[in-house]
Amino acid sequence: MSEQRLCALTDIPDGGSRGMLRRDLDDQLCVVRQGDEVFVWLNDCPHEHRPMEYRQDRFLSSDGGHIVCYAHSAHFDIRTGHCFAGPCTGQHLVKVPATVRDGEVFIPAELPSIFD
Ligand code: FES
């Protein structure tokens, strides 16, 4: 599978999040870093298929413990994308498989579809 470089690991604050791959007004990806691990999700809330951040790069709860969609406060596990509270409880974010090599983050050349 071909891949693309997304960013340097250090472009994402440890314990924080970034929006990436901007298209028009929205970032297509929600990217969360925890140490040397990076979790990448389509920035597409399963509730109403909207972007999730409350402002640029802000996807996480105040304690950094989970992803929050600020439209209607759906809460998602950072590692699994599982929605455990809010209007789409039981649904999932769409994962973008990411690998970290030599301090660089790579994702597949083609993003997954929200309809998979
Ligand atoms: S659009 Fe995300 S909780 Fe409603």
TrEMBL record:
InterPro entries: Rieske_2Fe-2S, Rieske_2Fe-2S_sf. Keywords: 2Fe-2S, Iron, Iron-sulfur, Metal-binding. It comes from the Bacteria. Residues 4-107 form the Rieske domain. PROSITE patterns: RIESKE. The keyword Endoplasmic reticulum does not apply. The keyword DNA repair does not apply. It holds the Pfam family Rieske. This is Rieske (2Fe-2S) protein. It comes from Pseudaquabacterium inlustre.
